[in-house]
Design brief:
single chain; 336 residues; alpha/beta; OB fold (Dihydrolipoamide Acetyltransferase, E2P); Purple Acid Phosphatase, chain A, domain 2; 2 domains; six-stranded mixed β-sheet; globular
């Protein structure tokens, strides 16, 4: 059977009971305590397949649990030449904790003679490009630019100072001036017109095709729900959360949590096609990895530790630039 997880509970004997549903009915599924399945983490609203037997009371006794997941073998497509793509996220222009000096360093490096820098042709920024206005209580006390258009104007000036060879893709995040519910649309025309013509505006999430390489770009707000639902997952290990999304083939599998999801006729957060590169941000960490042939990138922030992060003992990893070679899929991180 295949269904969406409506409920998960553990009995006093250590058995796990799932309620699977579709648009016609609900079916109870037992993951026996003496089975390896008993330790399997299952989150609400994910879609799973169950292979098992049905007892006389209509209870499905699970023998195996199957997720959509990715194919086990996938080769990176590669491109001729050695053009590279760099990734950023969570720049937070307008915040007092924006790392202006670090930004100047990366801007200077991108415009310099370094061979790797010269090969970077694309820059993808996956959300929270400015700090926003009124995102959380008393935010105005932590801003250097308290006008939303002023924040985007400052960002536009920063991007215009980057080398002309760069094609820059901007996605919104939960701090940006678009609706908070996902999927988020691209920035409105009133913001787009502040930027040069080399800037491309995309929604969150988006699938980008860069020289034939498919890039799935997502801000990553659903990481908040995954961290609170999957034991062992943390903000310091976002790549594990990204792997969970790929296994579930959904960017925000948990409904009704911290991630607002728009009630649209079609679910645009399903991972229909397997990407070559999958990038997120949001958690102010950084990392690169691979999962079943997909290059994983969690893009770094350009904001120092905020008072909120300090209160929760969250240590960001700012001012790092993940770079992927489009010919080979090799990923490196450069620190500034």
């Amino acid at each position: 059977i295949i269904g969406m997880v409506a409920d998960v509970r553990t009995t006093k004997n250590g058995h796990r009971i799932l309620e699977l549903e579709d648009d016609t009915e609900r079916v109870p599924v037992l993951l026996p305590a003496d089975s390896p399945l008993a330790s399997e983490t299952v989150v609400p609203d994910e879609v799973v397949g169950i292979v098992g037997t049905v007892n006389g009371k209509g209870l499905v006794i699970a023998a195996s649990l199957v997720r959509p997941d990715l194919p086990t073998t996938k080769a990176f497509p590669g491109t001729p030449g050695h053009a590279r793509v760099a990734f950023m996220s969570d720049i937070h222009v307008g915040s007092r904790t924006f790392l202006d000096e670090k930004w100047s360093r990366v801007s200077e490096w991108l415009g310099g003679a370094d061979e790797v820098a010269q090969s970077i042709r694309y820059l993808v920024v996956s959300g929270d490009v400015v700090d926003g206005i009124g995102v959380y209580p008393r935010q105005d006390e932590e801003l250097t630019i308290d006008d939303i258009y002023g924040q985007y104007e400052a960002l536009a000036g920063m991007i215009s100072a980057l080398p002309d060879r760069l094609a820059v893709v901007l996605l919104p995040g939960n701090h940006d001036a678009v609706r908070p519910a996902e999927p988020q649309p691209a920035f409105p025309t009133s913001i787009q017109k502040l930027f040069d013509s080399n800037v491309i505006f995309a929604g969150n999430p988006s699938v980008l095709s860069i020289e034939g390489v498919r890039i799935l770009a997502y801000h990553g707000r659903s990481m908040d729900d995954l961290v609170s639902s999957i034991p062992g997952l943390s903000y310091q290990r976002p790549l594990d959360g990204m792997k969970a999304m790929l296994r579930m083939r959904h960017l925000a599998p948990i409904y009704g949590g911290k991630t607002p999801i728009a009630p649209e006729a079609e679910d645009h957060l399903i991972i229909e096609d397997v990407p070559d590169i999958f990038v997120t941000g949001h958690v102010h960490a950084v990392g690169v990895d691979q999962y079943r042939g997909v290059v994983l990138v969690n893009a770094s922030t350009w904001q120092a530790q905020t008072p909120y992060q300090k209160m929760r003992n969250i240590q960001p990893a700012p001012a790092r630039l993940p770079i992927v070679d489009l010919a080979t899929g090799q990923a490196v991180i450069r620190e500034f």
